[in-house]
Amino acid sequence: MSVAPSHPIVSGDADGKTGTPVSDVLPAFADVFPFERFNPMQSETLPALIETDENVVVSAPTASGKTAIAEVTISQTLAAGGTALFLAPLRALTNEKEREWERFEELGYSVYVVTGERDLHPRKAERADVLVMTPEKADSATRKHDSRRYSFVTDVDCCVIDEVHLLDSDERGSVLEVTISRLRRLCDPRVIALSATMPNVEDVAAWLDAPPETTFSFGESYRPVPLSADVATYSHGDNAFADKYRRLYRALDLAEPHIREEGQALVFVASRQDTVRAATKARDELTERDVPIGVRGEYDFHTEAETLGNDTLRQSVLDGVAFHHAGLSRTDKSAIEQWFREGQIQLLFSTSTLAWGVNLPARCVVIRDTHHHDPLEGEVAMSPLDVLQMLGRAGRPGYDDQGYAWVVCDSTDADRYRRLLREGKTIQSQLADRDSRPDGKSPSDSTRGPVSTDLAVHLNAEIALGFVGDLQDALDWLGETFYYVTVADTMTTEELRGRISETVEWLVSAGFVEMDGLAVEPTPLGRLASQFYLALPTAREFADLADRAAITEFQVLCAVANAGEFDSVSTRSDEETAVDAVLGERAGGRDSGTRKVLAILRAAMTGTTPAELKSDAWIIRQNALRLLAALRAIVDRFGTPGGANLVKRVTARVETGVSADAVGLTAIDGVGQRRAQSLASAGYRSPDAVASATTAELTASGLESGVAERVRESAAELPAVTVEWGSFPETIAHGDREMHEVLVRTTAGDARAGLRVTLNDVEMTSKATYLGQTTLPVGVFGGTTEQLEFTVHVLFPELPLQPITDSRTVTVE
Fold this sequence. Notes:
Blueprint: H1 22-25, H2 40-51, E1 56-59, H3 66-79, E2 84-87, H4 91-100, H5 102-105, E3 111-113, H6 122-127, E4 130-133, H7 135-143, E5 158-161, H8 173-187, E6 190-195, H9 201-208, E7 215-217, E8 227-233, H10 240-260, E9 265-268, H11 272-288, H12 299-305, H13 311-317, E10 321-324, H14 330-342, E11 347-350, H15 353-356, E12 364-367, E13 371-374, E14 378-381, H16 384-391, E15 403-409, H17 414-423, H18 453-465, H19 471-479, H20 482-487, H21 493-509, E16 513-516, E17 519-522, H22 524-531, H23 536-546, H24 553-561, H25 576-583, H26 592-606, H27 614-638, H28 641-656, H29 673-681, H30 687-692, H31 695-700, H32 705-716, E18 721-724, E19 731-732, E20 737-746, E21 751-759, E22 762-771, E23 773-781, E24 787-795, E25 804-812
Parallel strand pairs: 1-6, 1-7, 2-4, 2-5, 3-4, 5-6, 8-15, 9-11, 9-12, 10-11, 12-15, 19-25
Antiparallel strand pairs: 13-14, 16-17, 18-20, 20-23, 21-22, 21-24, 24-25
Helix pairs in contact: 2-3, 7-8, 10-11, 18-21, 18-22, 19-21, 22-23, 22-27, 23-24, 23-27, 24-26, 25-26, 26-27, 26-28, 27-28
């Protein structure tokens, strides 16, 4: 569906010969835009953006200028005194927008990127004029909207969704879908949805209530450079390693004619490591082919290249070949981008991140790898959206008359990719995919009904948030989703009601929801699963572990490694020996992926991750830390303070690599991995020891003097527990009975604590309290046992402090 605005501001064509001056539309924001006139595509959307308050959907080819539409919307929102939210598809892009939109800062507006929980500054977020988030962060924020930290999310006046075709993503589409639906219920912002070309733009418009006059579908004629896209096949080698090089040579065959004509080529590969290897091999291959490329004779560029921090990159750029990935420093990435735009680099190898981020077009674009290794998912095919996004970078406006794009693939996949290039990708909702189930069973397993994982997870979240209170609310919620739009013509209301009912029944049976008639309420487990973004089977397994009388460190690590979030982790052949070296004989019966996660976690606890595991270790460890935080909360709620304390100490060790006897140091505010290790190396083992040290002594351990003083003060604010036994006897006559009180108090900071009294290792009494101070009643009975050992245990479920014990022995005479 292609709709022309009812009140065109400018007449023109798709060749870009005319366009509306920015200063005529937004004079106060003209400096925000890096051009003086909007192009024809942008100009056609201006009446919808400026003259109406309707929601707007724009589908247009990659590189046609959709970012400017976002900036028009943001400018208009700011001019009205409102707050704009920009949803970027990748975290790397949120940081990029923060840098790009310093132009808004120069006009006196604040831009704030909301990233991780620990980095959040609520006051900055509350005062921001422009908020930038990923869909996942927006989902988390809207789930916590009634907390003081995240209340800012309910004040959004306009939401811009960049790359709304992300709805079709298997892993992330449902998150975007339910987040937008929830945000519209919370504060009803105006929504501007931007997308690459998609055949069913009208479905997205129907979901967002965008009328025809504010729904736009711009065809290929609006591309700044015409695109020719096709598929190239290759012949297989002896193994996957050989295949990579065969695909590389095929990619160079396709790029070479353009490089010889002083054009540029952008080649997408699977990983950061592949960008480096491919660039190195390509330099040698182009030399053998006698392709005229490189700038070694240019003294000025040679001098500029010396500023690069990456040694391999420094040598490569002199041959006109470079690589680009998220692991490079910001300075190196910026230099590569600038030199590529200037034509100093003719061949660039990159990961797919570049396709979603920097607008860096090239005459020729080649996708060498259609599969990539994901630390959590194993070997996965590149999504159709990624493929189209990458190919859309072909053609450099103002330099090229034509863009050329190629997918290099196996001959068995060729027809599938040709069909994708010919027909595009219809956007489908992933919210209620029946091919997946929350309990891990086959969809054909009739014991629980064919319940969708994503539908169950997100419905549980809505119930936990209080948005859904009965089955009718659940049906109404489903009616607000993109899923409803896509199935409205094929499913009856009764069928949809049945879909909701079976999902609620599963949630009830699994302990996440309670049902009274048609009313539904979340259980504590359901709330925690929503709060911590857990897969529901993982939450159930964690709750089962919490029910145990006692848990061990190894059980904690196994619970995390076995979590469904790591189901697709695989162990590559070069990693197996390293995994075995870390684990030895332990966990021998578990699958290789679970063993790999276990090995990474155990190695992290000692700060000695083998080199073979480091490529996946960071992302696995970050996800494990999230799961450990959830496990601690679940054990705290359903288990014991001692169990929660154990999980907290394991978490601190996975995060910092500090030894078990020194893990309490991480409880000190301001002491992270490096400082904890410095203090531990200097012989400090507890916050008490740090609080008792002088600033000079702490400085000698490696802390800066100012930091040392703050660390000492913070350590002094943690609980310092004393146990006072009072008149507790040393002896008792056989047959006598006495009652005594033991005083437990902290002489410094206070905290939640679990207290236990045991007699000869058997629990007599327990108490949860907030220290302070408290008394524990202890009965002493002169029985048949000659020695009675009474022990007071103090455990902190929210702090990684070692358990504190104090004992008294009573002799029975």
